[in-house]
């Protein structure tokens, strides 16, 4: 039986540790695909100094588990790990990790992208950008909504 792991946390995560968690107790999968999102500098002025993320406890974890379940309906998957950080994050800090195991690479790549696209649209996170010009709550980008709708 494969395992799903969902975590919403303040603490940073170890990509190596999470990759081991995806591989754990499973010799039937030939592909692991991971995505790590990090805090990056904005391309325009004002310059980003930090980011603050909030979530709806309980509901967020349930939404992430539901997204993984939807991916499992589309692809045959091994272990799946999703970690999302909350709180105050600085430039180059890890924000999100999605890791998917599957017997074949195509399913692993597609499932990882699907999970990330749906996470951006359906998981209840709120993001505030702290810039040189002030602090602003950020609305969902149309491109993120379109990405999830494309599935």
From TrEMBL:
One of its GO terms (molecular function) is molybdopterin synthase activity. It holds the Pfam family MoaE. GO terms for biological process: Mo-molybdopterin cofactor biosynthetic process. It catalyses: 2 [molybdopterin-synthase sulfur-carrier protein]-C-terminal-Gly-aminoethanethioate + cyclic pyranopterin phosphate + H2O = molybdopterin + 2 [molybdopterin-synthase sulfur-carrier protein]-C-terminal Gly-Gly + 2 H(+). InterPro entries: MoaE_sf, Mopterin_biosynth_MoaE. This is Molybdopterin synthase catalytic subunit. Coiled coil: none annotated. Keywords: Molybdenum cofactor biosynthesis, Transferase. The keyword Transferase applies. Heterotetramer of 2 MoaD subunits and 2 MoaE subunits. Also stable as homodimer. The enzyme changes between these two forms during catalysis. Belongs to the MoaE family.
